[in-house]
Amino acid sequence: MSTQTDWKSPQMLRWCQYLLDSYAYWTRQELIPRKGTTYEQASYLFNCSFVVVSHQTREDPVLNYGNQAALNLWEMDWRQFTRTPSRMTAEPVNREERARVLQQARTQGYIADYRGVRISSTGKRFLVDQAVVWNILNPDGNTIGQGATFSVWRFL
Fold it and tell me: What SS3 class is residue 82?
């Protein structure tokens, strides 16, 4: 599976900082070790063993970031992943629950310990467990997206 290097763009390096800063703001913990340059942090995030995904705020959000673990799990390359409506990561039967969780995170800032079923691009179903979903803020404190991370999943 090929990966393009779009995560290295200046826009994505900035997005990764917003994602990391917001995670720390809401959870009072760092998602990754925050050392080195912006590029080094983004590289660590992209290559870490746990899943990190995000989408921007809009009516029907499209995924705008997925690290290598996410790309592998959803069986997509960067280009496919970042053109996928976020809702498509869940089967139709699970989309209402997914929407409820995202709304809960929007209201509370973040939720921890989320559990739900997702589906890869080839139809493989998997259960996500102990996921954190959080609002991504810009430096002005405005919500500009939502992120999710998890390290526990199993195929069904």
Answer: coil
45-71 pLDDT, tens digit each:
999 999 999 999 988 999 999 999 999
Give residue 122's domain range: 6-155
Roughly what angle, to the nearest 10 degrees, separates helices 38-47 and 10-27? 80
Question: Residue 112's CB: how many other CB atoms inside 10 A?
Answer: 12
Is position 1 within any domain?
A: no
- Its pTM surpasses 0.70: yes
What CATH number corresponds to the domain at position 19?
Answer: 3.30.450.20
Q: Give the number of domains in the chain.
A: 1
CA 1 – CA 4 distance, rounded (Å): 10
